[in-house]
Specification:
alpha+beta, 60s Ribosomal Protein L30, Chain: A, five-stranded mixed sheet, 5 helices, cilium, cell projection, OmpA-like_sf, transmembrane, transmembrane helix
Length: 223
Amino acid sequence: MNLPEFALEQGEQRHATWSVPWSDLMMVMFILFLVLFVFSLREKERLVLSHRSTASIQSVTSSNAQLNMLPLYEVLRERLLGHERMLNVAFTEDASIVISLFGENFFNPMSYEIEHRPGLLLSKIGHAISVAQGTIVITGFADDAPPTPQGSRTSEQGAWEVAALRAAAVAEHFVHQAGINPEMLIIQARGTAHPLLPDFIETRNSQRRLEIRIDPDQPSSAR
């Protein structure tokens, strides 16, 4: 394409100039500032997410678990109302529910047999917790047994075994009477090593107890 040529007057010099209106220049500066501002915000957000502490993530997870377990806790409190002398229901900070069954109300000394009346209460508990999605841990605690004759099995050995048998008896009761999946159950024994009260003779009945702990369901990624 042939462009027209303009003759220069004598003495006139050719200068390359670029003139931009002031309003256009301000608009370009504003757009540049806006782009930099948005970029800085995105960078800060990325840094915050990358430095997010494990404790804060666990706190959110724990809060969600508490919300999920709270309805079951309320159901247990309602259904077990009036049995406060026989048991206690607690909601722990880690969103677990712990049901403590006290002493002579459920087991005779050094016995793991479940009588008819406490069996009815255990069935009520079992039906309530059958909807739980997490693990159910049943722990037997034995009271201190009377001294045994020399040469026979020690009282500590007998107490440990009885504690395990009590936990197993309750687990079996839950499976057969409440339809709880046995794969959700864990049984363990503590024997006399973890007393609820100082080990005086008059408090041995209180050492004879059992705890049922319902843990919240763990996300598949944590299993």
